[in-house]
Specification:
Shape: globular
Number of helices: 9
Strand order of the largest sheet: 1-2-10-7-8-9
Low-confidence stretches: none
Length: 307
């Protein structure tokens, strides 16, 4: 039995499970990549490690320095986890609306959490991070929304894992977009392997990808107020805009039918995957990303439709 030398070695290589208890057309198979089984509980554990490593290797961060980052929570947890034992301070700028559990986990991992007004959205958190960056010496902001290391993380890790675990038998890839890095990097890798793979991006209502205006939504962890520079819309083979009601309904169904305890962004992605499955021909293999778990949203009554 292999024994890891640190928690950092446990990031990645998450399992895939086939969804078998939902009605699908004959010959269509649907698989879910359980990213919430990373040690920090989300797909962003991968990004945290890459951002910190990139910061040290580029010389932008030195021991004893401070990482400052605007985050909805999961990237913060991933960065704080990556910083364990590295002699760096960590400060996160978090809009007040995001789950208290995420903020508690960031603090438990040694981070300082600075709140910004919900009404200012992620742009408000980004603005606050820039202010702190100017005030605190030897500080660095990875800027996940603008850093090419974000999609590169998933090009290097998540894409190859999916390809290997499913032996290249992938016809449709489905993922939600918050920063868009998970979708973008994975889609790029898969398209290089097989240009015929359909890459499907998922957003909640209140996001901009389908031409809508930024607005409030209960689905947490996905939804874009602006399009990061690294996003390439040519990879958007389909865009699904999912209601909060459908996302939370799917969360409840996945728990009751499959025993999968996932967050609302997973519920939204799963609903999109089901929409794709229901119109797919026999022999189609679909894989969807489940980024995080329901446990960090219990205070928001995730199993009661959210608050």
């Amino acid at each position: 039995m292999k024994v890891a030398k640190s928690v950092h070695e446990l990031v990645g290589n998450t399992p895939i499970v086939e969804i078998t208890r939902f009605p699908l057309p004959k010959g269509v198979r649907l698989f879910a990549k359980l990213e919430y089984l990373n040690p920090g509980g989300s797909v962003k554990d991968r990004l945290g490690q890459e951002l910190l490593q990139d910061a040290f290797e580029s010389g932008k961060l030195k021991e004893g320095g401070t990482i400052i980052e605007p985050t909805a929570g999961n990237t913060g947890i991933g960065l704080a986890l990556a910083a364990i034992g590295k002699n760096v301070n960590v400060i996160f700028c978090v809009p007040e609306k995001f789950s208290v559990e995420k903020q508690q986990l960031m603090r438990a991992l040694g981070a300082t959490v600075v709140h910004t007004p919900t009404s200012d959205g992620m742009q408000g958190a980004i603005k606050k991070a820039k202010e702190l960056l100017a005030e605190i010496p030897n500080s660095y902001c990875p800027q996940q929304f603008a850093n090419p290391a974000n999609p590169r993380t998933y090009y290097k890790t998540l894409g190859p894992e999916l390809w290997e675990q499913l032996d290249g038998n992938i016809d449709i890839f489905v993922a939600g977009a918050g920063t868009g890095g998970t979708f973008m990097g994975t889609a790029q890798f898969l398209k290089e392997k097989n240009a015929g793979i359909k890459t499907v991006i998922v957003e909640p209502e209140g996001s901009i990808l389908n031409g809508g205006e930024p607005g409030p939504h209960k689905t947490e962890g996905i939804g874009m107020e602006f399009l990061p520079e690294y996003m390439d819309e040519s990879y958007f083979d389909a865009i699904h805009t999912i209601t909060d009601e459908d996302a939370f309904r799917r969360v409840q169904e996945l728990a009751a039918k499959e025993g999968l305890l996932v967050g609302s962004s997973s519920g939204a992605a799963f609903h999109a995957a089901m929409l794709e499955a229901l119109q797919a021909p026999s022999g189609t293999h679909i894989v969807v990303i489940f980024p995080d778990s329901s446990e960090r949203y219990l205070s928001k009554k995730i199993y009661e439709g959210g608050i």
